[in-house]
Design brief:
Elements: E1 2-4, E2 7-13, E3 22-27, E4 33-38, H1 56-61, E5 70-73, E6 76-79, H2 82-100, E7 105-109, H3 117-130, E8 136-137, H4 139-142, H5 144-154, E9 162-163, E10 170-174, H6 178-181, H7 191-200, E11 204-208, H8 214-218, E12 221-223, H9 230-243, E13 256-257, H10 259-266, H11 271-278, H12 282-294, E14 299-302, H13 304-307, H14 312-325, E15 335-336, H15 380-386, E16 409-413, H16 417-420, H17 424-431, E17 436-440, E18 453-455, E19 476-479, H18 495-506, H19 516-530, H20 535-539, H21 547-556, H22 573-577, E20 583-587, H23 592-595, E21 603-604, H24 608-611, H25 614-621, E22 629-633, E23 658-660, H26 662-668, E24 675-679, E25 684-691, E26 699-703, H27 716-720, E27 735-736, E28 741-742, E29 747-748, E30 750-753
Parallel strand pairs: 7-8, 7-16, 10-11, 10-14, 11-12, 13-21, 16-17, 17-18, 22-26, 23-25
Antiparallel strand pairs: 1-2, 2-3, 3-4, 5-6, 5-18, 9-15, 19-20, 22-29, 23-26, 24-25, 24-30, 27-28
Length: about 750
């Protein structure tokens, strides 16, 4: 922090996405943010920034942001004290516990949780303390296939390798658009700038996507593909590699098992057999295979478009398989595992997998869907609320996942599932039916309008920040701590304290009996034990608990930490306070042999749970072609559903449009600028048409995160640009069956003039 006259400059990392851009934030004497610009001295981003990062001041000052707890009486909201809010939570939670038991309770964890210092560290305490039998999350819309494949291949659901694009010579991108997302399950600043650098060193970037995205425009080649057929394409590429003698495991030849199984599977999918289904010529598939094999190094990257599709797990798995069998795994320029300075809570071994990984341990009550990694599809949440019990349930019922008890209580944490989940209309109806709904959120949005209590967190500028899990897929080992820009009264609860109270209430305690510090110390001691240090000894180093204490532990017991004096030259949180522009240790290094923890101790290339799904994929080859398929998209000036209330980001032309190829527009009778009706088996929406050749024929696109037209919200700017909710068109029963991930890309639709 530096002062210059009436302006104080704060150095900070943007918390909005994986790009982790360094910012300069200028604040005047009236405590108003006057300017945000890139921190050109940041060791990671080196002056790169996207439009969203410049608006943190707008988010902080937003008059619609909730700053005090709110309680709903019928249709009326009123601000209350924190004590009154927690007492109302006590009343609501214990009411459900007494009438229905804990099996009638759950929670929903939203995507922003990972980007928040308090929520990311303490959501585990909430889940463990509350004893909720199961939970729902944005993961089953976003990346569950990747979690499944990494769990089975490497032994950990968050051991996700990332493309080392800063050193690669060939970047294959499938189902991802870093131009808009800045990277997802890939942490790198200025991903598009890296495309130019790949070209400068004689390399090439290829984008395979139904839409010619902003990333495709910057790449060397765009290859359109029919949504949902990525696994067929990847198997055909593998077919060529094996048939032409181009497959190699390189230095991992003694560390990989299952390559013969993959060879046998790929033999069934020649380029000619899948070309028509994928809409990619056989000769193009063969050329791509040879280009990858010939490149000095190649990074294979598949993201959300591969995850939330019909064969999401197969496609996500095959991305890694392709890297491994071309020798582009665990080496510079290929797929590599990041190394965090501060370990993540997600790195700690989960006791539920102590006896090995198994799926289908229980099933959802209504649909009978088997669990995968402890979760069922998010679309199950609505039916579990709306469907009555078929047999009497007593409050004393043993709390077991999948128990036949209708859900009556939901806690939402930093999420808006009414906008972001399939069967959105059903989700909206379901939340209105609950006996108890508590939301930890900063806005009265489409979801939280149904809550009985809203407990607001702090703004992004009122809390410290340090990313942890994101560094697991970062192209360099680095870290950066940001202290709060604005002070908050000490008595104002932080998010970690809110989660602790809610967890204890669900555990059966009453508000007056909750000792937050005691639970914090217990959680901290457990984290110490997991890192091999004594909790009582470590706690003696601190005068207070909370997130900074936890962060200091993460750094000091990490691979470069001082181990509380055992390594005097090691890092501590103080090291980062003294280095406001960050600390960079270097690029990714080969480390697969250190982190793989499968039962065999090796990379398991062909997990039977995944390979068994190839039979289902075969039937896709000869399936009749759908007339039109819907895919989603995002924009560089948008962040899922929650930045549409920032006026400066909403300037310009309407972004919530139906993108459609000119030939499809003529065939459907719709014209540019007019309104079309889009219909699926789940519902229909009316939306302006944008005719563009950036869409391949047979595919249309709607952005996700819109639909801000609900009565009862407090989003004044977003309401002016309401758009339509594309999840009204997503059937909740459409899932990738082996991961439980929602299918929101590749939905059959019909388009006609409105």
């Amino acid at each position: 922090m530096a002062a210059d006259g009436d302006i104080t400059t704060h150095i900070r990392t943007c918390p909005l996405c994986e790009a982790m851009c360094g910012l300069e934030i200028h604040v005047d004497t009236q405590q108003q943010v006057t300017l945000i610009r890139p921190d050109r001295e940041d060791v990671w981003s080196k002056g790169f920034i996207c439009p969203k990062g410049t608006t943190l001041g707008h988010l902080h000052h937003d008059p619609d942001r909730i700053r005090e707890p709110m309680v709903r009486d019928g249709e009326t909201w009123r601000e209350v004290s924190w004590e009154a809010a927690f007492r109302r939570c006590d009343e609501l939670i214990h009411g459900v516990l007494e009438r229905h038991g804990k099996s009638a309770m759950t929670c929903y964890i939203g995507n922003p949780t990972i980007h928040n210092l308090s929520l990311s560290r303490y959501v585990g305490l909430f889940v463990g303390l509350s004893g909720l039998p199961m939970l729902y999350s944005a993961g089953t819309v976003d990346q569950w296939p990747k979690n499944v494949s990494c769990m089975l291949m490497y032994g950990g659901m968050w051991r996700i390798p990332a493309p080392d694009i800063q050193r690669t010579h060939y970047w294959l991108i499938m189902g991802g658009n870093p131009q808009a997302s800045q990277g997802s399950l890939l942490a790198v600043p200025d991903a598009l700038g890296e495309i130019a650098k790949i070209r400068e060193r004689g390399g090439k970037t290829v984008v395979i996507d139904p839409r010619r995205t902003g990333t495709a425009d910057k790449a060397d080649e765009w290859i359109p593909i029919v949504p949902g057929t990525d696994a067929l394409f990847l198997l055909a590429v593998l077919n060529v590699l094996f048939a032409d003698g181009l497959a190699t495991l390189g230095e991992l030849s003694d560390f990989v098992i299952g390559i013969d199984d993959v060879r046998a599977l790929a033999a069934q999918f020649s380029p000619e057999s899948v070309a028509d289904t994928c809409s990619i010529p056989a000769e193009t598939i063969r050329r791509i295979a040879h280009e990858i094999a010939a490149a000095p190094s190649a990074s294979i990257y598949g993201r959300i478009g591969l995850c939330n599709q019909e064969f999401g797990t197969l496609a996500s798995w095959l991305i890694d398989v392709l890297a491994i069998v071309t020798g582009n795994f665990d080496r510079p320029g290929g797929l590599m595992f990041g190394r965090s300075i501060a370990w993540s809570v997600s790195d700690i071994a989960d006791p539920q997998w102590a006896d090995g990984v198994s799926f289908g341990r229980w099933k959802s009550r209504v649909r009978g869907t088997p669990e995968v990694l402890g979760q069922v599809p998010i679309s199950c949440l609505a039916e579990e609320i709306l469907t009555p019990n078929t047999s009497p349930i007593t409050p004393a019922l043993t709390c077991e996942p999948g128990a036949s008890s209708q859900l009556r209580s939901v806690v939402t944490i930093a999420g808006n599932p009414v906008i972001s989940s399939p069967e959105a209309a059903a989700m909206d109806r379901a939340f209105a039916d609950l006996d108890c709904m508590i939301s930890v959120d900063n806005y009265l949005n489409e979801t939280t309008r149904h809550a009985h209590v809203i407990l607001p967190g702090l703004s992004q500028l009122e809390v410290g920040h340090y990313d942890d899990l994101i560094h697991s897929w970062a192209v360099r080992t680095h870290g950066n701590y940001s202290p709060p820009v604005f002070d908050v009264p000490a008595e104002r609860p932080r998010e970690w304290q809110i989660l602790t109270v809610l967890g204890a209430l669900h555990a059966g305690m009453h508000y007056d009996d909750i000792d937050i510090a005691m639970f914090d110390d217990g959680f901290f001691d457990a984290m110490c034990t997991a890192q091999g240090v004594d909790g009582a000894f470590v706690r003696s180093h601190y005068t207070e608990g909370g997130t900074e204490r936890m962060l200091d532990l993460q750094i000091r017991t990490g691979p470069f930490g001082d181990r509380y004096g055992a390594n005097p030259d090691g890092l501590t949180l103080r090291s980062f306070r003294d280095a406001p522009h960050g600390i960079d240790i270097g690029p990714m290094e080969p480390r697969a042999r250190q982190i793989v923890t499968t039962p065999s101790g090796k990379i398991e290339l062909a997990p039977p749970y995944i390979t068994a799904d190839v039979e289902r994929l075969k039937a896709r080859v000869d399936r009749p072609v759908d007339d039109l398929l819907l895919v989603s998209r995002r924009h560089v000036r948008s962040n899922n559903s929650w930045m549409h209330n920032v006026r400066v980001l909403m300037k310009g032309k309407d972004r919530c449009t139906l993108l459609i190829n000119p030939s499809d527009a003529d065939r459907c009778g719709v014209v540019h600028g007019a309104v079309a009706r889009v219909t699926s088996e789940a519902g229909e929406v009316e939306v302006p048409v944008e005719v563009s050749d950036e869409m391949m024929q047979g595919v249309v696109s709607l952005p996700h995160g819109w639909g801000h037209d609900k009565v009862g919200t407090r989003l004044s700017v977003a309401r002016e640009h309401a758009g339509v909710n594309n999840n009204l068109l997503a059937p909740g029963t459409l899932i990738d069956v082996i991961s439980n991930n929602a299918i929101v890309n590749g939905i059959p639709v019909a388009v006609v003039p409105a």
